[in-house]
Amino acid sequence: MGAKKKSGKGRSGPAKDKRSWQGQRTANSFAGASFERSQVLGSGTQSTRINVQAYAAVPTALNALPGLPQEFTGREDEISKVLALLDPATGASAAVGSVAGLPGVGKTTLAHAVGHAALDRGWFTGVQLVNLRGYDPTPVPPQDALEALLRALGVGADHIPPTLDERAGLYRSQLDALARDGQRVLILADNASTSDQIRPLLPARHHAVLVTSRHTLPGLGARLFNLHPLQPEAAVDLLRQRLEVADPDDRRVEDEPTAAEELAALCGYLPLALQIAAALLADDPDQPLSERVRMLTDAGSRLGGLDDGERNLRAVFDECLTRLTHQQADLYRLLGLHPGPDISTPAVAALTDQPADRITPLLRQLVQARLLTQNSQARDRWSMHDLLRVHAQEQARTTMDSGRVSRRRYEQARTRLTDHYIHHARAGDTHFRPPGEAVTTPFADREQALAWFDDERENLLATSYVQTGDHARKARLGFALGSYLEWRRRLQDLLSVRAHALEACQALGGTHNQAGAWNNLGSTLGELRRYDEALDAHQTALSLYQESGNIHGEAGAWNNLGNALGELKRYDEAVDAHQTALRLYQETGTIHGQAGAWNNLGSSLKHLRRYDEAVDAHQTALRLYQETDNIRGQAGTWNNLGSTLKHLRRYDEAVDAHQTALQLYLETGDTYGRAGAWNNLGNALGKLKRHSEAIDAHQTALQLYLETGDTYGRADVWNNLGNSLGSLKRYDEAVDAHHTAVQMHQETGDVSGQAGAWNNLGNSLGSLRRYDEAVDAHQTALQLYQETSDVPGQAGALSNLGNAFGELKRHDEAADAHRTALQLCRETGDVTSQAGTWNNLGNALGDLKRHDEALDAYRTALQLCEETGDIPGQAGAWNNLGSGLVELGRHDEALDAVRTALQMHQETGDIPGQAVAWNNVGTAARGLGRYADAIAAAEKAVTMLTEEADWKRVGEAWGELATTLAASGAEPSRIREAWEQSATAYTRDGDREAAAASRASAESCLT
Question: Which of 466, 473, 685, 745 is 20–30 Å from 657 (CA)?
Fold first, then answer.
């Protein structure tokens, strides 16, 4: 044992003193030392006691860590986790950790950072760093690694034994000696590829080993730390810091934050890729980040743009393949054929034409090589890092280009994968069809089908976009995805899929499939509110169906054409289209089609204000859907029926209808349908003055639309929610809600929706006495309605604009706006809107002191409301008529009019309306000298309006009471109190001018 041994390895460096230094403390300097082929890196000094058993130690140095790059960032959590393992307080046994991750993820730098942190805490007296070069063509064998470590521990080269076992024994002896001397060493074994490289380096106790590897090294028994790419913020920070290292004045990341985020994403948040990109940018300081982004995006492969001359990401990935078996490398390349972000085990089995139980071990081997990731939640799903996927795609193309046999094999693999997706998608699609149609395995029910579609959605979309020249498969997949994407409200995805399906059908030729593709595309365009394009698509589909003699298809095209016409407010044409569809469905005996046509016909009739016919149509549709046990169809029909009943002022029935729809949608799991039903229920509850419940309903709808990702629906709900908030006098919240609706409608490009939101925003602003802003809002709404040729919308905007002008005392402009609105209402035949506009015109004429004309306007409004059976409208007209008669001194007639209004408001349970009527009763009674009646009526009005917190009208009512008290000769103090109460109410309403006037009247009572 005491004889001098030679290792047989090449050595160089200064001659060594061969005297024994057993048990002696040494101070060693590593500066200037040279170890050829040694894997020890760095320089530094350290004091240590080395106890050599049987071999004379040669003075040398323990290794010191290299410094960290200045741009090192974003690894705080990972460092903390590794340090928890290395903490000496955790025990005296050896701590062994393994940091695993894909190439370029920063494993070595993390290990260095951990070493620095551990030294700073005083946990180790030294750190030994050995690079095992596990992925080089010739990895470092464990005996060479031991030689390097032994030399660093102070063993002279001539005293290192030749065999692996002897070196391992000596290495452990050296570490034990250090442990007995109270010293602790951290071994950083970098870039290992196998457990065999590491196992001889493990100490028995006290010390610690931290390994880095692209593999998990399961046989090592180490605690595993999986290192992932950086978080987006940290990746951008790395870019910024690296550029500032090169030039402290470089502000490109700050100047182009969006481009910096895009660049980090294109680098896959991989530190090596980010460093290469930063180096390229530093070499070209005038290059904008956006230009570098375009270069990486436009280059057929991102990998080609990640080469700075010294570091080449593609070469790093290529090196990984050299460590794989033929089967593993072939699977890696085949996975490059898959266009989506992840893949299931059954899909891999289809791709490789191998059973799942045979292919799974190979997949696991790629996971261990860090070329693949297994989903921790769904264990049968696998994914690649973004840049590895690009590399695998390159490898697949290279293989296909290598020869005809390889190309055919890979094309067959891609076809099998596509067929796998088509088979399952078509089977899943059967679960969205009307009841009674055949359902295909492998899914037991719709929930299973939805779960599969949800898991595979991105893969299915990517497959449908791939240009392979196989038009038949592209068309089949596109048709199979439609129902699912519509159910999940993935409308933009649906548009793309259906556009690609149409292209495929056109390439194949044949009218039948083209007609279906045009019809499907039109429906999606309609869902996206691109109604003119939808109309063109359905007309094209109709022509093709007629050309091919497909009556059933023709019926569907007519039905969808009617929907598009309805959305374009061409309601008469829509009715004709739905009636044509109904006749054709009756010819073919298609009950489901008839039900759909009746339902859509009812909606078009509703817009023509043919409400009774609309109700009959919906009820017919409901019976047909019930015959076929179509729950979803019943739900939609109940929802539409509720909306029509609301127009007939049958609000309780409307609420019941929407609640029934909700229950049925819940049974079918239709979240989108539930959202619409909740929204409509909120509108119906609002008509019943159940505003708090209406708000709850709208908020529920909002949440459901958020779950489905439907921005259009959310925008509509925000608008309706604003109306409900306004009804509760929560005007600031209402304004916020309408602003949100405007913004969301702008995001989606829905001009009609924007117009409605602006119009309602104007009303809420008016309630806050922000009349100038209200005018602007209504004028914006008017312009948008004109752009869309929405005549009813224009009429409504003009009527509201007239009211806002009136509040600004711009009475001539108010009257003009109402007259124009009235003309438009006549054009559309909207009697209800005509009545309301006549009422508003009467108010404007009254403000202009043209009281006789105002009375005529009110009487016309009253007559129209009587024709339509509009009791609330009649009550309002009677009330205004009474006020107009008071202005003309016709107090007896005025009193009769307002009492009639009061009675009608009582019949409908309209408390605010009753309060206003009581106030007007007091005014009329005062004109007749009936002061006791007038005072009692005014006091009743004050009480009711105070309970409603309608402070503007409370101020008016107290003013009327004060005026009546003065006329009756009441005590000045009582009159003054009434005026002060009026001022207080106006102040609460925010009307300073009215409050000042009431306060002045109160003060006049003292003189």
Answer: 745
Name the band, by pLDDT with cuts 50, 70 and 90, for residue 63.
low
Q: CA angle, corner 400, sides to 395 and 405, nearest 5?
A: 140
CA atoms within 13 A on the CB side of 418: 25
CA distance 834 to 840: 10
Instruction: Specify the 3-state DSSP secondary structure of 71.
Output: coil
User: Are 518 and 510 contacting, i.e. CB atoms less than 8 angstroms apart?
Assistant: no
Distance CA 900, CA 886 (A): 15
Tell me if 757 sits within 8 A of 742, measured CB to CB.
yes
The answer to whether the beta carbons of residues 155 and 186 sit under 8 Å apart is no
Give the angle 1004-1005-1006 at the CA atoms, nearest 5°.
90
As beta bridge partners, residue 129 has 188
Distance of alpha carbon 414 from alpha carbon 411, whole angstroms: 5
Do β-strands 381-383 and 208-213 pair in parallel, antiparallel, or remain unpaired?
A: unpaired
725 SS3 class: helix
Beginning with the edge strand found earlier in the chain, give each strand of the sheet holding 185-192 in spatial order: 126-131, 185-192, 208-213, 95-100, 223-226
Residue 92: its pLDDT value, please? Answer: 67
Q: In 197-216, which positions are buried (b, 16+ CB within 10 angstroms) versus exposed (e)? A: bbebbbbeebbbbbbbbbbb
Give this prediction's pTM: 0.80
Q: What share of the chain is helix, strand, coil (3-state, %, to 5)?
A: 70, 5, 25
Q: Show Cβ contacts of residue 466 under 8 Å, excluding neighbours closer than 6 positions.
A: 339
3-state secondary structure of 610: coil
Q: What pLDDT, on the 0 to 100 scale, is given for residue 157?
A: 87
CB atoms within 10 A of CB 282: 17
pLDDT tens-place string over residues 441-471: 789 999 999 999 999 999 999 999 987 789 9
d(C-alpha 648, C-alpha 540), whole Å: 37
Burial of residue 553 (CB within 10 Å: 0-12, 13-18, 19+) is buried
Beta strand 342-344 pairing with 381-383: antiparallel
* DSSP bridge partners of 26: 48
Burial of 907 by CB count in 10 Å (0-12 exposed, 13-18 middle, 19+ buried)? exposed
| More confident: 323 or 984 | 984
DSSP states of 979-1000:
HHHHHHHHHHHT-HHHHHHHHH
H helix or E strand, kind and range, residue 120: helix 107-120
